[in-house]
Amino acid sequence: MLTLETPVSALGPVAKRRSALLAELGLATVRDVLLHFPSRHENFQTGTPLAEIEPGTNVSVIAQVVSARSRPRFGRRMSISEATLTDGTAEIRAIWFNQPYRAKSLQEGASFRFSGKVTQSKFGVQLQNPQVEAVADLKDGNAIAGEDLLPVYPTTNGITQQTLRLVARLALPAASQLTDPLPENMRVRYALSSLADAVRQAHFPARAEDVAKARRRIGFDEMLRMQLSIGKMRRLRQARPAPKIPFDETATKSFVKGLPFTLTDDQRKAAWAVLSDMTTGFQMHRLLDGDVGSGKTVAAAIAMMNVARADYQSALMAPTEILAAQHFATLSRFFKRQPFTVAIWTQSYKRAVRGGREIVCKTKKEVELLGKEIADGEIAVVVGTHALVEDALKFNALALAVVDEQHRFGVRLRSLLVGKSGIPDVEPHLLSMTATPIPRSLALAMFGDLDLSLIKEKPKGRIEVETRLVLSKERAKAYEKVREEVAEGRQAFVVCPLIDPSDFMGAASVTEEYENLRKNELRGISLGMLHGKLSADEKEKVMADFLAKKIMVLVSTSVVEVGVDVPNASVMCIEGAERFGLSQLHQFRGRIGRGEHPSFCYLLPSMFSPNVKERMMAVVRHKDGFSLAEKDLQMRGPGDILGTAQSGFPEFLMAAFGDARLIADAKQAAEAILEEDPELERHEALRKDLKAAAERVHLE
Ligand code: ADP
Ligand code: MG
Known about the structure:
Elements: H1 13-24, H2 30-35, E1 40-43, E2 58-73, E3 78-86, E4 91-97, H3 102-105, E5 111-121, E6 124-134, H4 135-144, E7 149-152, H5 161-171, H6 184-189, H7 195-203, H8 208-238, H9 249-258, H10 265-279, E8 285-290, H11 296-309, E9 313-317, H12 321-334, E10 342-345, E11 350-354, E12 357-360, H13 364-375, E13 381-384, H14 387-390, E14 398-403, H15 411-418, E15 429-434, H16 440-447, E16 451-455, E17 465-469, H17 475-487, E18 491-495, H18 510-519, E19 527-530, H19 536-547, E20 553-556, E21 569-575, H20 582-589, E22 599-604, H21 610-621, H22 625-636, H23 639-642, H24 651-657, H25 660-676, H26 684-696
Parallel strand pairs: 4-6, 8-15, 8-16, 9-13, 9-14, 10-13, 14-15, 17-22, 18-20, 18-21, 19-20, 21-22
Antiparallel strand pairs: 1-7, 2-3, 2-5, 3-4, 5-6, 10-11, 11-12
The structure holds adenosine-5'-diphosphate and magnesium ion.
Adenosine-5'-diphosphate (ADP) binds at residues 261-264, 267, 290, 292-298, 435, 459.
């Protein structure tokens, strides 16, 4: 009898032959197969039009062969087969490595389905090593797949989609044996399919509506699990004792008065929220979200100053040394007249500023002494990088941990910092900062266990950056502007997606662009190069030279994204702009327009498609990060906004992030469940699921 535990190898001859590969995909039993959901569904008659495919995605297209050939490469050891394909909307190239037989099977004029990864090469957009299915075979697939929607499974690991479809079909009768973790009343309240139905609808939808229903149900489950763990974490935190930091009103007022600018209302509100959180005696965990240049640092500084005045320590962890060094300089300036010491602790910088004098620790002994002063609590504010947690550094009484650009740190680093308070059994308050504006719905889903402060308002007198989309034929004009600005004494950034030239990507690289600009468009201008392969010393030298105007144009990778405050820079050219997310482009743009000079940002995509154009124009039109993030969410889903943070999330959860209604429903459901059953004692299936999911999903 077929049960959920039946091994895949018992599902028939094909499954048996493939069972080792299927097991590698995590598909060992019927249950695994049923819960291995397709990531997409495609109408087998059409597929994606070639004109609409985007590099970096996986697609399935139906196209006709225009020509095909195979040739050896690198002597006789490798071969390349290539074909030109068309579907009437566009013509593209497909290539296969080491499949010499491939060209022969692709008769000119015949149509096939090609499924695989879209890459960008110097020949344009291409399909790389796609799977090929004869269109006639698809008709058989159709017999399996209900009407005309074919499930397309995620990772395939050398197994064809047909095999996966077949295995899923054989496993399907066991769907009714799945226990539904959702109580009946909740399914009714939120109009959700039963789990068994959702599984059937996901694998073999009869119509598009079925796919939507399956997605909603499966997404709801994922989101509910996430909201339950977030809810539990929040409850735990709100009961966890943490140092009580009184609000020192006099000192705070005089500090604010001493600033060279007036705080914006949002800054004031954020600082106030942090200060009042820290008076409660329970752990604060607040996310400070504000555009680049919105002035988050000063809000953090006010908190740190109150902590220092209460005789506790605070630490600020930044993702790069450049940024840590900048924070150190800023805080030393802010705290010049304060009766406490500020230090920096990174791999290359170990310094302290005491009474306006900077002490650089060079010898091993001096470094040890600085470490000891931190351990003894003589230093109130310590700025650093991950070296703060990785080195054997100890704190005496760390009451506040500030994490800048928090998404750049893993959960592990942050919790290590929190674990270092030096006060037995007490964790410090946590202030996370991000310049990635996150739409409210998404913030609720992702960071629901945190309190949120948004800094939307820009400091007064900021200059708006004029942003333009530059077509390849106008490229010279953009660089002409760079020359003009440099002639006026201004400086410029050129951002490239890669460090070194790469054969297959076809995108601009720093080393190539540097040489190219030096010889051509920017001849005679002093250029510098900045990228992640340079050592900290080299980077520091380049940045110092840029600040000192010894370098006028800085050609760089995305390392300029964070930090880097050069008010004299007024132009930015972003090469290969389509390869960056909208929020990232907005971050780059935030590097200019920081002084009093009119500033210009040029987006120079290396390829155009309607989608690329729409995304670029969104950056041109939307000046503030929050509306751009909303736009990003609508256009590309949450992946682009969350950036690297997304990697661990299951497919359907990712989709659910884009659905504000689903998030609100799941959150409400989770709260209702936790309210009456905080330990999930009466929700056994959910409790088990949660445990399993906790191992997969990284929660903030
Ligand atoms: P971010 O939010 O990107 O970390 P910063 O804290 O680095 O921004 O602030 C950017 C710049 O704006 C700094 O030079 C800072 O001194 C300045 N600044 C901060 N707040 C204000 C304000 N209210 N008015 C004018 N300038 C401000
Ligand atoms: Mg900052």
